[in-house]
């Protein structure tokens, strides 16, 4: 079980214009997957630009526990010597994933397809998160939960089958984690494993499967979905992976530049995968001045430098089918909406209730406490902006959620009064350099004892 650290209170206050260039940390989704595919390949995989936050480091330790040689060569530079599909060993101790929902769920897929047993654990936040959505399809493939906390939550012990069964599985909700877990388990199943998505979710797993030599096909399904087929039991070949900047992390300095008058910030090398650009699309609809320059490809993904200038925003209606392309960005979008003119309605946000915290409730509470007109209707969050700075001045409970902490610190940069968050410790899970990089742009942020 992860150790408990003392809360680190942080405060942000109205700043002058933000100026400069910034590269957000490596994409968290790709970082987890690069390590895992390095484990499952035969030979040495080299990774550059790896996010070295606590979540990803937990996945690196789990890969080592399952038999890989994992070595840090320098900042963001890692080497993984894998054991190949079918070559995993049972770990000697529980796999502690800390706060890493993605790492734990993807690794359940890996373990669930192999004839090994592993115990999964994490911090208080991860222990509260639902795992049935992963365990249900793995059970169809022959995996068995031999011990768990109430409701199939962590800590739990998962035992894979002697031979995993290939299945056809339609995901009950849009979830790249569920899709990826089934595909990862299907790697060690004979035959073809098929996943059907009614709403297309981020496709890093499919892209990386191809890069490592797996046979995977993707075709449209229905109005917004995809059908993915994977041929099992390949010999994955090691690859060179360059991880682009994480759009979910870049979202915080991006919105900060939009709301701090006079700002101009360039965000370097941000992934622009179409299944990850929902926030940029929505902010552009709101009138945001965002220009993509130097479009190129890194690590098999489209990337660009984003030039962001401050300016007025207006409220918009965000359709529910956009949620899978921006599920982690709704907290910071809600902050942008607080500075906009008119009503922004974010529809279909049920998935936010089962993230690191109940993000829907936490965002709403933080907004209202700081003088923003906001309400929840069913699974929708409605924010009515007044085209001026919110009042601020109130403390915000983060519920151990890094994105809540960063979102409300960004709000403080434009609010009338400083905004305080009760704990910034968890920011290290995804964006360990957030505070120094933001202050380097001119943001007034600091931690308090």
Protein model, in words:
The protein is α/β, with parallel strands linked by helices and 449 residues long. The chain is globular. It is 29% helix and 29% strand. The longest helix is centred in the N-terminal third of the chain and has 13 residues, at 28-40. The model has no long low-confidence stretch (mean pLDDT 95). Strands 22-23-1-24 form a four-stranded mixed β-sheet. Helix 8 runs parallel beside helix 10 (330-339) and helix 8 packs parallel to helix 12. One of its GO terms (molecular function) is 3-phosphoshikimate 1-carboxyvinyltransferase activity. Phosphoenolpyruvate binds at residues 28, 101, 129, 177, 359, 403. Pathway: Metabolic intermediate biosynthesis; chorismate biosynthesis; chorismate from D-erythrose 4-phosphate and phosphoenolpyruvate: step 6/7. Catalyzes the transfer of the enolpyruvyl moiety of phosphoenolpyruvate (PEP) to the 5-hydroxyl of shikimate-3-phosphate (S3P) to produce enolpyruvyl shikimate-3-phosphate and inorganic phosphate.
Give helix % range: 25-40%
For the termini, the CA-CA separation is 26 Å
The geometry reads as globular
> What is the count of helical runs?
13
Strand count: 24
Describe the strand arrangement of the main beta sheet, using strand numbers.
22-23-1-24
Catalogue the unreliable spans. none
User: What is the typical, i.e. mean, pLDDT?
Assistant: 95
Structural class: alpha/beta
Q: What's the Cα radius of gyration?
A: 21 Å
Determine the strand fraction and express it as a percent band: 25-35%
Largest sheet: 4 strands, mixed
Organism: Methylopila musalis
EC number: 2.5.1.19
Keywords: Amino-acid biosynthesis, Aromatic amino acid biosynthesis, Cytoplasm, Transferase
GO molecular function, one term: 3-phosphoshikimate 1-carboxyvinyltransferase activity
């Amino acid at each position: 079980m992860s150790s408990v650290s003392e809360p680190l209170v942080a405060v942000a206050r109205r700043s002058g214009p933000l100026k400069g260039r910034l590269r957000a940390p490596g994409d968290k989704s790709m970082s987890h997957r690069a390590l895992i595919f390095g484990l499952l390949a035969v030979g040495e995989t080299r990774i550059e630009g790896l996010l070295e936050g606590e979540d990803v480091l937990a996945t690196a330790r789990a890969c080592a526990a399952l038999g890989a040689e994992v070595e840090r060569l320098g900042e963001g530079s890692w080497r993984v010597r894998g054991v190949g599909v079918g070559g995993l060993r049972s770990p000697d101790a529980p796999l502690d994933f800390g706060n890493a929902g993605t790492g734990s769920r993807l690794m359940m897929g890996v373990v669930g397809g192999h004839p090994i047993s592993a115990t999964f654990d994490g911090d208080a936040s991860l222990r509260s998160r639902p795992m049935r959505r992963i365990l249900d399809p793995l059970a169809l493939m022959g995996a068995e939960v031999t011990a768990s906390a109430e409701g199939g939550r962590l800590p739990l012990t998962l035992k894979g089958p002697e031979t995993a069964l290939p299945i056809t599985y339609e995901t009950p909700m849009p979830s790249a984690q569920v899709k990826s877990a089934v595909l990862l388990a299907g790697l060690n199943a004979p035959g073809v494993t098929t996943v059907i998505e009614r709403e297309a979710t981020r496709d890093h797993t499919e892209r990386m499967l191809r890069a490592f030599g797996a046979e995977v096909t993707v075709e449209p399904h229905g109005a917004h979905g995809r059908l993915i087929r994977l041929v099992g039991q390949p010999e994955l070949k090691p690859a060179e992976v360059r991880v682009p900047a994480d759009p979910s992390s870049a979202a915080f300095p991006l919105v900060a530049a939009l709301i701090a008058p006079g700002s101009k910030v360039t965000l370097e090398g941000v992934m622009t995968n179409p299944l990850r650009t929902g926030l940029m699309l929505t902010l552009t609809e709101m009138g945001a001045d965002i220009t993509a320059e130097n479009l190129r490809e890194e690590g098999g993904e489209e990337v660009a430098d984003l030039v962001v200038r401050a300016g007025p925003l207006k409220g918009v209606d965000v359709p529910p089918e956009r949620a899978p392309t921006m599920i982690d960005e709704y907290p910071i979008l809600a902050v942008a909406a607080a500075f906009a003119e008119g009503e922004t309605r974010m529809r279909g946000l049920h998935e936010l209730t089962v993230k690191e915290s109940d993000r829907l409730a936490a965002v709403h509470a933080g907004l209202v406490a700081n003088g923003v007109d906001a309400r929840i209707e069913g699974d929708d969050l409605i924010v009515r902006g007044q085209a001026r700075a919110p009042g601020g001045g109130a403390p915000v409970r983060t519920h151990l959620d890094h994105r809540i902490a960063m979102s409300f610190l960004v709000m403080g940069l434009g609010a009338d009064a400083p905004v305080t968050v009760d704990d910034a410790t968890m920011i290290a899970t995804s964006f360990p350099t957030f505070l120094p990089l933001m202050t380097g742009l001119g943001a007034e942020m600091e931690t308090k004892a």
